[in-house]
Amino acid sequence: MPQYEQQDVTSSSAKLRNRVLVIDDGDSVRNIIGIFLEHAGFAVCGEAADGIDGIEQAKKLKPDLIVLDLAMPRMDGMEAALILRKTMPDVPIVLLTLYQNVLGPSLASELGVKAVIDKTDGMDKLVKCVHSLLKIESAPETA
After folding, report:
1. Domains in the chain: ranges and CATH
2. 11-14: which pairs have CB atoms within 8 A and are 24 or more residues apart?
3. pTM above 0.85, yes or no
4. Percent of the chain predicted with pLDDT > 90
C-alpha cells in the first residue's frame, strides 16, 4: 500500500505542474521513487505495477509527468509508452530502467520518451530530470 494518497486532479497542486505518476512493477522501487520525488517537492498522484494499470491511472489522474519502468508484467513500458504518447501527447514520459543499454536514442524517440535513465544512476538523476522536464525550480527547504 502506498504511503501517499492519490490526489484529485482538481486540487490546487494540479496547477503547479508537479504531479507525477509512477509505474513500476517493484513495490519497493515505487516507494523509493515516491520518497525522492516528494522530498524534492513533487506530488506523486498515483502509482501502478504494470502498463495496463498505468494507462488507466494516467487517464484518470491526468499527471504532469510519468515515470515508467521498461520491464513489467502484462504490458511492458515500451507498449505502454506508445499508448500513453498517443492518448496524452503533452505529458512527458521518463523511462527508468535497468535496461538502458537496450534502448538507443532512435527507439526512445519513436516511443515518445523524453528521457531514459538507468536505475543504477540513482534517484538524484531522476529528480533532476523531472525538474528539467517540468521546468520547476527546486522546492525551498522548510524549517
Report:
1. 22-134 (3.40.50.2300)
2. 13/43, 14/62
3. no
4. 56
